[in-house]
Amino acid sequence: MTQEKAVVERQRDAGRTRTELLDVATEEFAENGYSGARVDEIAARTRTTKRMIYYYFGGKEQLYLAVLERAYAEIRAAERTVDVDHLDPVAAVRRLAEVTFDHHEAHPAFIKLVGVENAQHAKHMNHVARLVDLNSSAVDLLRGVLDRGRAEGTFRDDVDALDVHMMISSFCFFRVANRHTWGALFDRDLLDESRRGHYRTMLGDLVTGYLRK
Question: Which residue intervals are the DNA-binding region (predicted)?
Fold first, then answer.
């Protein structure tokens, strides 16, 4: 093996190791919170050492922040797959809402991580400027669609993009986060596959109904 190939292979191994550590750390922090998560457990589950984790990330807090950053980057990346410029504003907003709906359902660990950080008053998140930039992009994307809708006379003039983002996020978050308590109280599983299409359409109708003149 040439020296160049050896370097590439080491980089690939490092990338795979880092990804595996983030995968397991995501589960550990989501299930046990920041205080309850154990770096030793993450090391054991990835068949590595605490020292190796610190080599890649620097420490427990840095690992947790890397988990948060990746979790938010994934939902923002999913939103960017929507070609909003080639959809009419109503269809674009509905599609963005559906992307959030699908993502939150498929990533329950993300919901738990957000709950963990809220329980800590976002004390870790406040120190990561990239998270602000990542999430501002979601609002900017919506703002562009809303501007087009207003210009076409389809959307109300008093609509705030951050409010729309909150409306979409709250519906999708509640459906996953409150699944068990809602089921205990009302005997209805919010993730019941037979009602999935109903809730997905309901979200789109709520958001576009709010926006229309």
Answer: 38-57
